[in-house]
Design brief:
alpha/beta; 10 strands; about 35% helix
């Protein structure tokens, strides 16, 4: 699922922020005209209908309702997911919150990290969304574990109150300044106890934990831990199989897929990045690519395939699963310096001089569509 970053402004200062290269530095905002181009490009695949809208904090974007309408009304999109901290949810109009395509993933931070007042407002907004805007089943919580002694107890009452049956978990990577202090596997081993504890407490709440792209590599777990988690997973899946996609199942409770594929985030200036972990070195302009499928292939050919030759931990060096691409041994972020060596990715010959206009155009006359006539043709026709 590609994501469009509409603003770099945020109302929080999360200690684990994965977009720290951009957020609240010299905040940029995407223009409506550029959003239309980004939207057209993000949905150009013809197959991947899911779209993410991200920030910063997207609910702070002054034109949030305009961009949501564009995305929700586009016949190629389904669903449209907004990634938010939930504090300023009142900025979104009810007609957008109630749209059948609208989804939310809420980064649910602790009162310690976001402040008690902001935390209470987030919680109230989530309760209101579920009750007043037909929100049942259209949003999930996400928890970011970023230190071995992370106290996640704040989330348990919210999960129980909202009666969630799924929750997303991400094991956040350490900041750049500390990434060299541990190998990838050492880091994930240090995070394993709190991750397994979290999964266990969610199970006791009747809630299925699904991993984001930062997950525990298989070799970090003992055989007993893997077998135990798999038994629980089988029980959950047999009872809930109609409610979850196969992809969610593969990364639920126990990850069965351990490789990493391009996410593709489109920045306010219409540059794309492979993911925020590699944002510093993978910026390329989207107008050099025909569609998002071609861009994804570019990243796979120029990052994902060759980076397999870099091992983020000594144990990974001769690992068969790494050599055949089945396991990346943790986030590519841990291979950043080893692979890029401080240099940025360059466009290959096929894309250096290429140019593609991703502007929405009238199907009748080919003219650029105005903001009030995105899909039905322009007024002159």
């Amino acid at each position: 699922m590609p994501n469009i970053m509409i603003t770099e402004t945020c109302n929080l200062r999360c200690p684990y922020c994965f977009a720290s290269e951009f957020v609240n530095k010299k905040p940029k905002e995407m223009t409506l005209s550029d959003f239309k181009k980004a939207l057209n490009f993000a949905l150009s695949d013809g197959k991947d209908r899911q779209l993410g809208i991200i920030g910063g904090e997207p609910t702070l974007y002054p034109l949030i309702n305009e961009v949501l309408r564009m995305a929700l009304e586009d016949p190629r999109s389904d669903p449209v997911m907004i990634y938010t901290n939930g504090v300023a949810l009142e900025n979104i109009l009810p007609q957008n919150l109630e749209d059948a395509k609208f989804r939310m993933l809420v980064n649910c931070n602790s009162p310690e990290d976001m402040g008690q007042k902001q935390f209470d407002k987030m919680r109230e907004n989530l309760m209101r969304f579920k009750k007043d805007h037909y929100g049942e089943g259209r949003f999930r919580l996400s928890v970011n574990l970023y230190k071995p002694d992370f106290d996640y107890s704040y989330i348990i009452p919210i999960v129980q109150e909202l009666e969630f049956d799924t929750i997303r978990l991400s094991i956040s990577v350490p900041p750049k300044s500390k990434v060299s202090e541990q190998t990838a596997l050492e880091y994930f081993r240090s995070m394993k106890p709190v991750a397994l504890s979290f999964i266990g407490d969610m199970i006791r709440c009747g809630t299925l934990t699904g991993f984001d792209c930062n997950f525990l590599p298989e070799c970090v777990l003992t055989k007993e831990e893997r077998d135990g988690l798999m038994k629980v997973k089988d029980i959950f899946y047999s009872g809930l199989s109609k409610n979850y996609s196969r992809n969610f199942w593969q990364r639920a409770i126990l990850c069965e897929t351990h490789n990493c594929t391009p996410v593709i985030d489109i920045l306010p200036d219409l540059n794309a990045i492979r993911c925020f972990g590699l944002s510093e070195h993978t910026k390329v302009p989207i107008d050099h690519f025909k569609d998002i499928k071609e861009l994804r292939k570019f990243y796979i050919d120029n990052v994902d395939r060759p980076i397999i030759n870099c091992s983020s931990s000594p144990e990974c060096k001769d690992c068969y699963n790494r050599e055949c691409g089945d396991c990346t041994g943790g986030c590519h972020y841990f291979r950043d310096e080893q692979f890029f060596g401080g240099k940025n990715i360059e466009l290959d010959d096929a894309h250096k001089d290429a140019f593609f206009d991703h502007t929405y155009r009238c199907p009748t006359c080919g003219g650029e569509l105005g903001e009030d006539a995105l899909y039905g043709g322009c007024s002159c026709c």
